[in-house]
Automatic annotation (TrEMBL):
Belongs to the PTPS family. One of its GO terms (biological process) is tetrahydrobiopterin biosynthetic process. Keywords: Lyase, Metal-binding, Tetrahydrobiopterin biosynthesis, Zinc. Pfam families: PTPS. Pathway: Cofactor biosynthesis; tetrahydrobiopterin biosynthesis; tetrahydrobiopterin from 7,8-dihydroneopterin triphosphate: step 1/3. This is 6-pyruvoyl tetrahydrobiopterin synthase. Its cofactor is Zn(2+). InterPro entries: 6-PTP_synth/QueD, 6-PTP_synth/QueD_sf, PTPS_His_AS. The keyword NADP does not apply.
Amino acid sequence: MASLPGSQSGGGTARGRRTVYATRRVSFCAAHYLRSPQLSDEENKALFGKCFNTHGHNYVVKATVKGEAIVVKQLDHKNLDFDVPYFKQCIRYVSYTNLGWA
């Protein structure tokens, strides 16, 4: 399984099959404000203070997926140029980069 920037991978064995975990960490910035539509502006300002105004935060999201590593079944003991349909039909040459996309 190819690693993406900011990703990690690890694995384990479940009933003789190889299980792979891939985690991607992404950060982004976004803005919001805190206000209640049931309150006046003055009440909102008193309740939420400086958060009444639009302000931003930096967020970090980590997403992990788990699955069986099927790449070995598709590629093990194969001629990548001739036996793997992805390379045979779509890619002119096999490289580590292209192997990650397969």
